[in-house]
## 1
Amino acid sequence: MSIQSLLKKMEEQKRSREDIELINKAYDFSLRAHQGQKRKSGEPYIIHPLTTAYRIAEMRLDSKTIAAAFLHDVLEDYPEKEKELKKEFGEEISFLVEGVTKLNKIKYRGAERSAESLRKMFLAIGEDIRIVLLKLTDRLHNVETLQYLPPEKQKRIAQETMDIYAPLAYRLGMENLSGELEDLCFPFVYPREHEWLVGITRQRRDKWSRLIQKMKPILAEELMREKIKFLSINSRVKHYYSIYKKLHKFDMDIAKITDLVAMRVIVPSVDDCYAALGVVHKLWPPVPGKIKDYIALPKPNGYQSLHTTVFTKGDGLVEIQMRTPEMHEEAEYGIAAHWAYAEQKREKRKLYAHNISSFLDQKKFSWLRQIREWQKEVKNPDEFLESLKIDFFQSRIFVLSPKGDVVDLPEGSTPVDFAFHIHTDIGQSAQGAKVNNKMVPLHHQLKTGDMVEILTQKGKKPSSDWLKFVKSSEARRKISSILKKMEENKNFAKQSGENMEIKLSVRNRVGMLRDISSVFARQKNSIKNISMETKNRIHPVVVIQTSFKNRRELEKIMVKLKEIKGVEEAEYKISH
Ligand code: MN
């Protein structure tokens, strides 16, 4: 990978002179910033931002995003460069770089729940989809070079990629990227299963590839005879990890997987897809129930194509897929490609015009809104909506604890909401807060991606003012209940604590009064008067006159008194 190949790609894409200048500038900046730094592989560091930038260009994202790809690790490694970055590249590129840096702070602890909230957080932080795409391409190169990391790190990153990044890529319609990520991580997460699968599929893959090579010219000739234009006939090899997942549905019987290798026909239009399907079936009869029309009924993530599985004479079953270039691009680049085409249609441009940039250039671009638009066109919106849970996360924010745990809170939440979510004790003793390492008032409104740290003080109590700004019902409920208790204690002390009478019904024994007195002494409470009534009673009654500072002190003493051997009953009342 070199800067020349990226610049060549950009020229092919007919990007403007300014764009090329910007990319050169970002490249130089990155080169200088990472000077002397090496990747774990021993390569110069620049290879990593360069690879990321190249892939962003391949997706035909705007040039600002390509620039951000060059700069995406600068702030992570050199936070002091923030000002310089802003000065040199402006708000928008800095915003993208900061977004990626924020996403790096998230740690994944391997629990199912945390996987889900992490995915949501990704989507929320990526209020700009470009940040998510940058992070996905960054991760792709990182897992491509996993072998250079220590084993423990390999495992953690591979697992995180499988749980978070690959499903996210899939949901965004980037099936191919998703499959690549999974396949790169598969040997690190399930080494034995991977080895086994590679072993049992090798021969079959070879056999199928040869078979498809044989079928290609036959199909090509027939398509030409029928005057159906086609752009290409390829074969695609199914990703290992998706075979592995599929095998679970088939009792791990590899003979039941009929699409290890599939033939892929790219034709100019949707009509051509159906026409080509007819030609295919004329040559080879279809397996009943295996024709899948993902054009009329796209998958929830937007995937479109026609699939069929056919009988070949004597050589077994082969899957054949028909799709248009747009469908192909969309399967490669998902949501990004979709936008490009939506925009092209609006501007009545030719296919393959390079125009995603203008579409994505809008400042403060809310991609959630775009997803909703997109989702309208998907035939199964319920499932799609469910998978993204838009309603849920639009009114939520996602913040981080200093350890990198994700906490989700209602929009407008404050450090106090955060503190009570972590633990009631932290909430009630909150005395100050830091957001992204800067001190903020307790009523400060948190934003998604903020890292929140709570400073506590022992014995500190909540203030009723907090109720005026907290947003979560959890914090509200806890604060109210603590305030109520505090109020009760105050009233208790004022009205009744002064004069309290405790009556104990006892089976008298030697040392009884001494034991009772010592309970009070241990709690540092002094008895004003103690007496024993024995007249006309089965059990004598000990009457104690005392006072309490608060209800808690009273309750503690009552518990201790009941524990004394021979004490049958204990009660208290306010004496006047
Ligand atoms: Mn990186």
## 2
Amino acid sequence: MGRNTRLVLILAAVFLAGVAARVLRGGNRESRVTFPALGTFATVVIETPRGTDPQPLLRGADSLLRHLEMETGCFPGQGVEALNRAGRASLRELDPDLVRVILLSDSLHRATLGCFDPSVGPLVRAWGFPDSPEVPDRETLDSCLRVTGWELLELDRDSLVMRPGMMLDFGAVAKGYAVDRVFEYLRSRGASSCLVEVGGEVRCGGDRLWRVAVRHPRNRGYFRVFAMESGALATSGDYECCLVRDGVRYSHIINPFTGFPGDGAQSATVHAPTCAVADAFATAAVIGGREAVEGFGPVEGMGVLLLTVGEDGEVSSWSTGVLPDTL
Ligand code: ADP
Ligand code: MG
């Protein structure tokens, strides 16, 4: 047996050992598994009819996530990283998932009035998120801002050309996109109900209610718990990945117009039919806050919950559109 085969078998064994299963009323079986993906953790919960083996579906979800991580994350020498290095690409030669993320980002950028902008790559790097965050000096910010702006890309149906120094970062949409892809894969392969979550971005569906909680932005508890039948919920906030300097909190969500972390809201939760849209809108809502959200492009079935934290630590909420029922 070759070394690689053995390694794959060991990984598969570890993967299978991590699956928690239980039989539900009506005889359906629920399987739940969590594994590392896209720099965070992914959880998949599926319900399958009695007598069907859930393992092929769970393994399929895992390998789909591996593929998406390579193409849409920052995997060295692959996908986005290779694109940034080359500075140009023929869309026919890129992976179809990466092309979909690029084209989707193009419309999400316009729908969010420019707040969602994957060209923030140089700014994100200058701020050092996530590994070694530091406040950059003015000169660095200015030079990053000169190569920030989705409009600076030449993008048409065949090709993409970046300006020298530009760097794309799909971190604000890639997890949501992965959730959608895995969710649709599982449903098309016979999961009667399922929930897919990657790094807090969730999509669920089927014939049951799912409880999805939104974290409190300043303590370990929950701010609200939603009961969802179907659809997606994504949250962005200044508490997950941030730097505190001289009492000022700087988050990893960067305003592409100023180069500074977004401060329109401290937490934004977006409910939408698909998770890629919810993910990008949640990031954009943290930057733009209420005023911008009111001008964002309409998405049918969308709802937004914004939380702001006052100087006294008091949390205020504001919402618009269609949110799931609260438990
Ligand atoms: P999380 O990763 O915590 O779920 P988000 O979905 O809001 O948070 O994504 C934040 C990531 O998106 C950042 O780490 C960065 O890579 C990227 N990013 C930061 N600011 C923007 C922006 N204005 N538009 C698009 N992507 C952004
Ligand atoms: Mg996001």
